[in-house]
Structures are given as structure tokens and as C-alpha cells.
């Protein structure tokens, strides 16, 4: 069994006097190419000190993205558009019912420590899921957030079944972050069949969502939980 990595207790706050993070919720489905272009432009402006930090919440039409570590054999069936992207990680799926949060922060204002930043993103998601009674955790071998599934068959050496509920893939340029996290609220989980998600192929490891876990919370309720948990971990936000 892969032991969970410890999540940080200390918040990942900006320096005193920094302006609040802009919190932007997109309406409708946002095309992936548009999202990448806007993220890159915003990250460049943040690095130059010309823009405030921002979290941009979106939903995408069905698509696959290939991170910098993606392997060709993990694309099983390209039934949706496939985009190569500069974020870390392997293949993942985005689509309606999944909340993608693009997080554009200035690590110079906070802490220039990428490992601590990623751990703080995981802690943020774990905190938000706890608001719905979901006990989530990390795994030592993979970035992201998982839940144990006692209702599913166990794996090798009697390892418990675990499903990933949130993926993380980030990029940093001049200490400005972009890309971010993807939390499964109520996507069509069958769409993951076209890839080996994040390169994880063990029989006892899969993907899940809040809906798959039997919850019926809305995207708006999830956004509220994400915002509250974000403010505890990263500081104040202002809705734009």
C-alpha cells in the first residue's frame, strides 16, 4: 500500500500587504486553447508585477490533455480532442461536470518552493472535500487526491482500492504559477476509458467523483467549499 504524504499544516500565504487573489468563475464551457492562452498571458503579467494573482474556475468540453510526462501508449482511444500541454504530469481528462481551477499565483510573494506549493494545492482540495464528508488523502507515489473504496476489490498484497477524485498539474514560469487542479464533481466517468489516467494502471486504482460517491452537491456548492478552503490555505480572495 502506498502511504499518504503528509499535507502541510502551515498556510501558503502571500507577504503582508499583498492584494487579495481574484476569484473568477467562468460561465459556460471554456475551450482549452483559449484557457491556455489566457493563463499564459496572466502568468506573464503576474511575474512582471503588472497583474494580481487569480484563481479561474472553468468547465471544459470533453477533451484529453497530455502533460510533459505523457506516454504514447497511455492514449488508448482518442475519442475526444487531444492537447499537448506544458503542465507536469501525464494524460488526463477534462469535461462537463468537472471543476477545473486554474491557479495563477506569484510564488515570489509567497514562498519560492514548488514542492510546498503542490502540497498546499493537495491540502486545499482535501479541506474542501471534507466539507462534504469525504475523507480524502494523498498517495506517496502520485500527485493528486484520492479516496479509499472499501466497496471495491483490493489489489496486490491486499492493498485497498483507491480512486482519484482530483488531479493536479502545474507549471511555473518566473515563479508565477499556472494550470492547476481538476476536481470531479459529476463528470461522465466513462470518458476516462480513452486514456490511462495519470499513467496509473493498477487494478485497484481508478477514478471517482462526488456523484459516484453518492453525493448530489451542485457545482455552486462545490465552488463555495473551494473558496472557503482556499482562503484558509492561501489568503483572502475577491470575486471578479
- Beta-strand percentage range: 25-35%
The count of DSSP E runs of length 2 or more, i.e. the number of strands, is 12
The helix count comes to 3
**What is the overall silhouette?**
globular
Q: Which series of helices and strands comes N to C?
A: EHEEEEEHEEEEEHE
C-alpha end-to-end distance? 43 Å
pLDDT < 50 stretches: none
The radius of gyration computed from the alpha-carbon positions, rounded to a whole number of angstroms, is 17 Å
Attribute tags:
single chain, 240 residues, alpha/beta, 3-stranded mixed beta sheet, 12 strands, 20% helix, 29% strand
Describe this structure in words.
By secondary structure, the chain is α/β, with parallel strands linked by helices. It contains three helices and twelve strands, in the order βαβββββαβββββαβ. The strands form two sheets. Strands 1, 2, 6, 7, 8, 9, 10, 11 and 12 form a nine-stranded mixed sheet that branches. α2 packs across α3 (219-234). The longest helix has 17 residues, at 114-130. It is globular. The model has no long low-confidence stretch (mean pLDDT 94).
Give a brief description.
The protein is of the alpha/beta class and about 240 residues long.
Q: What's the SSE blueprint?
A:
Blueprint: E1 21-29, H1 32-47, E2 54-59, E3 63-66, E4 82-84, E5 91-94, E6 98-104, H2 114-130, E7 137-139, E8 142-148, E9 162-173, E10 176-184, E11 205-207, H3 219-234, E12 237-239
Parallel strand pairs: 1-2, 1-12, 3-4, 9-11
Antiparallel strand pairs: 2-6, 3-5, 6-10, 7-8, 8-9, 9-10
Helix pairs in contact: 2-3
Amino acid at each position: 500500500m502506498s502511504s499518504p504524504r503528509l499535507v502541510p499544516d502551515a498556510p501558503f500565504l502571500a507577504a503582508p500587504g499583498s492584494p487579495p487573489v481574484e476569484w473568477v468563475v467562468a460561465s459556460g464551457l471554456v475551450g482549452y486553447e483559449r484557457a491556455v492562452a489566457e493563463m499564459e498571458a496572466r502568468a506573464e503579467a503576474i511575474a512582471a508585477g503588472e497583474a494580481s494573482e487569480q484563481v479561474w474556475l472553468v468547465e471544459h468540453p470533453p477533451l484529453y490533455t497530455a502533460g510533459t510526462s505523457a506516454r504514447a501508449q497511455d492514449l488508448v482511444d482518442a475519442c475526444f480532442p487531444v492537447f499537448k500541454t506544458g503542465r507536469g504530469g501525464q494524460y488526463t481528462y477534462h469535461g462537463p461536470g468537472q471543476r477545473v481551477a486554474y491557479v495563477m499565483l506569484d510564488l515570489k510573494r509567497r514562498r519560492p518552493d514548488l514542492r510546498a506549493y503542490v502540497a498546499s494545492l493537495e491540502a486545499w482540495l482535501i479541506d474542501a472535500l471534507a466539507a462534504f464528508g469525504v475523507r480524502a488523502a494523498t498517495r506517496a507515489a502520485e500527485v493528486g487526491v484520492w479516496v479509499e473504496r472499501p466497496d471495491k476489490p483490493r489489489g496486490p498484497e491486499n492493498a485497498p482500492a483507491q480512486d482519484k477524485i482530483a488531479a493536479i498539474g502545474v507549471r511555473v514560469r518566473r515563479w508565477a504559477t499556472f494550470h492547476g487542479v481538476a476536481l470531479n464533481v459529476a463528470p461522465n466517468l466513462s470518458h476516462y476509458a480513452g486514456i490511462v489516467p495519470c499513467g496509473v494502471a493498477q487494478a485497484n486504482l481508478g477514478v471517482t467523483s462526488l456523484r459516484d460517491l453518492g453525493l448530489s452537491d451542485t457545482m455552486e456548492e462545490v465552488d463555495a467549499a473551494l473558496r472557503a478552503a482556499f482562503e484558509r490555505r492561501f489568503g483572502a480572495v475577491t470575486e471578479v
